[in-house]
Amino acid sequence: MRKKYLIGVDLGTSSTRAALYQENGALITQASAEVSLHHPDPDAVEQDSDEFYSSAAWSVQQCLRSSGVDARQVAAIAFCSQMAGVTGVDDAYRPTMPYDSWLDMRCQPYIEAIEHECGDLVTRLTGCPPMCDHGPKILWWQHEHPDVYARTAKFLMPAAYVAGRLAGLDGDQAYIDYTFLHFSSLSDAEAGTWSDELCKRLGVAAEKLPRILSPWDSIGEVTSEGAADFGLVPGIPVAAGAGDTAAGALGAGVAFPGMLFDTAGTASVLALCSDRFVPDVENRVLLVMRSVLPGLWNSLAYMSGGLVLRWYRDTFAARECAEAQQMGTSAYAVLDRLAETVPAGSDGLLFLPHLGGRVCPTDSELRGVWAGISWNHTAGHFYRSVLESVAYEYAYFLSILRQLLPHLSLTEVHVIGGGARSDLWNRIKANVLRVPYVSIDRAEPATWGAAMIAGHAAGLYPDLAQVAAEQARPVSRISPEAEIMARYQAYLQEYTMLLAEIAPRLRRLSHLP
Asked: Which pLDDT value is given to residue 13?
């Protein structure tokens, strides 16, 4: 029986999604399961590593049952996952701690300590400034829970935990794939190794760190126990997998230098594919992440874009939500129709979207503002100003990318996520960034990216970049318009000056009782 199906699984913050694909890239079926967030105290956000495993098992079983596909026809499986959190396993691959989520800020004192001790060195070597990621979290467990640290054989991420358990690994075989290295605070990302200097400076035992693999490296095969859990058959190859952003970029067809990737989701991510490792030491805005594809890098920054849109919808758009429900559509589509009638620049209304602080660069004390409000501003103006604010932040990210990588000619942006369905938002971003925007025919590019990795591991896709590019079929393409671009450049300058001038006052306001 010829094996012609691939499985990709995305272990997210709020849900696990599995998808079954044919060898030709066609999606057969997909399934998802919610996963829980636990808050043992106000600053803590934890998840259960075994729930990642059980939710993945259930989702894969559902895909196979609903499709009727014989599990013997599955050629390989791979996982991708959220990237900045960390968990640990003992010598027998049993969890020693909860998954310490990227949302958990208990490690803030250790972020500050790393910044003070060797912030520039961490940024130069890992490609990422000190932030809420693996290194500070490992230090938190080392100093706050030394018993857990002592029991932990290796620290790893959800994708590696689930894949390793499915393949029956022990603690010594635990791994990390190279797309996570920028978040480690402990690596030489360009060399693809752990940094002895950073381990010594931060006091982390190098033997606690897992081996580093390429995403398509085979870590083993599905065991009998794993097969029973997932509804698979023993012996199916398990690939190392990747981080969710890296898998999503691959699934969106971002396979060549000069291409950009916009994840228009709860977190709005803008990434540029490059052939050079150029850390943003001066600005501390961009993170440089290894692409799944060898020799390529994704320089990226992010903000809470989709979360701001949801806040506006839930706070100010009750009527639009009710109207959308009656029409069987989304509230965002109704809001888009209101904003479509408003000219570029929202008739002088500017919005600063940092309701809970700024992420890149980190400024937890910034807050949101509407400026320039007048009698003629309508709900459409206010909503359009929110959409435009995300584009202005993206323009800031892109200005730094252009400075650091002046040799690159920017070709097009591939946009995915819920926001990709908004032609209005895509048009705004295309004109503010001065780069064409392309929506692609992939509802879940992260699971497809993981499936492609599995296919490469199984020998079905010898040229991963070619498959990624061919499978990223465009749904729509929006090119910038000269007149609107010029109009937005004037508003972008005002946005930048407003943010610089008002930021000190916003920081003071954030401390008032």
From this structure: 83
CA-CA distance, 361 to 406, in Å (whole number)?
A: 21
Residue 11 CA to chain centroid, in angstroms? Answer: 11
Question: Domain 253-441+481-513 class?
Answer: alpha beta
Q: What is the mean pLDDT of residues 403-418?
A: 91
pLDDT, tens digit, 9 for 90 and up, residues 451-505:
999 999 999 999 999 999 999 888 889 999 999 999 999 999 999 999 999 999 9
SS3 of 94-138: the string is: CECCCEECCCCCCCHHHHHHHHHHHHHHHHHHHCCCCCCCHHHHH
CA distances from 94 to 12, 97, 168 (A): 21, 9, 11
Where b means 16+ CB within 10 Å and e means fewer, 195-218 reads beebbeebebeeebbbebbbbbbb
- 471 alpha carbon, distance to own chain's centre: 21
Q: Fill in the amino acid letter for 305.
A: G
- The encoded tokens of residue 475 equal 């749904």
5-246: what fold?
Nucleotidyltransferase; domain 5 (3.30.420)
Q: For residue 320, name the pLDDT band (cuts at 50, 70, 90).
A: confident
pLDDT of residue 184: 96
Question: Can you tell me whether residue 164 is helix, strand or coil?
Answer: helix
Amino acid occupying residue 185: S
User: Is residue 17 within 8 Å of residue 447, measured between CB atoms?
Assistant: yes
Decide if 441 contacts 490 (C-beta within 8 A). Answer: no
Rounded to an integer, what distance in angstroms lies between the CA atom of residue 373 and that of residue 430? 25
Closest CA to 412 of 489, 484, 478: 478
| Residues 122, 112: Cα–Cα separation, whole Å | 12
| Each residue's pLDDT tens digit, 44-79 | 889 999 999 999 999 999 999 999 999 999 999 999
User: H-type helices in 353-481, by residue range?
Assistant: 379-404, 423-433, 445-457, 464-471
Residue 273: phi and psi, rounded to 5, are -85, 130
Residue 276 contacts residue 297 (beta carbons within 8 Å): yes
Coil/strand/helix, residue 495:
helix
Q: Look at residues 185, 180, 160, 176 and name the one whose alpha carbon lies nearest to residue 245.
A: 180
- Between strands 175-177 and 211-213, the pairing is parallel
Q: Which residue has the tokens 């390989």?
A: 76
Is 488 in contact with 432 (CB distance < 8 Å)?
A: yes
Q: Which two tokens stand for residue 330?
A: 């989304």
- The 3-class secondary structure across 304-343, one letter per residue, is CHHHHHHHHHHHHCHHHHHHHHHHCCCHHHHHHHHHHCCC
pTM across the whole model: 0.89
Which residues in the chain are classed under CATH 3.30.420.40? Answer: 5-246, 253-441+481-513
Supply 35's token pair.
């996963």
pLDDT tens-digit readout, 13-44 = 888 999 999 999 999 999 999 888 888 887 78
